[in-house]
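Is this the right way to post structure tokens for a design question? Let me know if I should format differently. Anyway, here goes:
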């Protein structure tokens, strides 16, 4: 009875995970991971990324396209130390940071709650800049900060949510044709990214509690 009750709680926990609003879209988003040579410098890499964003955006069934150094649910990544003015106890605070292209937030369905979105008026940051704003994740517009990672993830928002997987082959061909200096590491959808993030709990929930009780 205890094992069965625990299994029921686990199933309920998995259901709760899927009910959480991650504050970005998981449906209708195709994902393409691409990599370039580590020796490629930031400026030509960014130029190719922006060219690819435009080309991918012209694919049939694609509504908008963005690119990022790392997607949500794929680990924290790199971080900056942050000094909060007037709060010396927070001297060790840090934030993860992401470099993204202009339409990334629109493509991911991220809603702006305050302030403004990133745009072309944002200026490059100085090497010694930090800021008093404390945030769990900080975003910089590509070109404002160096795109120092040789990995880029493109997100393609499709006109119909069911078409996310259908555009992946065309997206792969576009990367090959437009930017042969980049290699596609893999393609997926944001739904699958979300499933992978909650996968361990979901797999554990598929254990038959009756089977476990018989084995005991």
């Amino acid at each position: 009875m205890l094992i069965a009750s625990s299994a029921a709680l686990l199933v309920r926990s998995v259901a709760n995970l899927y009910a959480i609003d991650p504050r970005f879209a998981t449906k209708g988003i195709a994902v393409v991971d691409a990599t370039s040579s580590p020796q490629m410098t930031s400026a030509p890499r960014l130029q190719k990324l922006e060219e690819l964003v435009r080309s991918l955006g012209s694919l049939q069934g694609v509504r908008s396209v963005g690119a990022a150094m790392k997607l949500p649910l794929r680990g924290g990544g790199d971080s900056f130390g942050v000094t909060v003015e007037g709060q010396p106890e927070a001297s060790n605070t840090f934030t993860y940071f992401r470099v993204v292209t202009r339409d990334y937030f629109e493509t991911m369905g991220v809603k702006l709650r305050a302030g403004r979105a990133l745009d072309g008026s944002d200026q490059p940051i100085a090497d010694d800049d930090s800021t008093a704003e404390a945030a769990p994740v900080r975003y910089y517009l590509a070109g404002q900060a160096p795109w120092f990672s040789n990995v880029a993830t493109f997100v393609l928002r499709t006109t119909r949510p069911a078409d996310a997987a259908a555009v992946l082959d065309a997206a792969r061909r576009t990367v090959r044709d437009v930017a042969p200096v980049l290699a596609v590491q893999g393609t997926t959808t944001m739904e699958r990214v979300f499933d992978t993030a909650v996968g361990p709990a979901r797999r554990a929930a598929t254990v038959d509690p009756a089977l476990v009780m018989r084995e005991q």
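Format looks fine. Someone answered above. Worth noting: The radius of gyration is 21 Å. Helices lie at 2-19, 42-57, 104-108, 168-178, 190-197, 199-205, 209-215.
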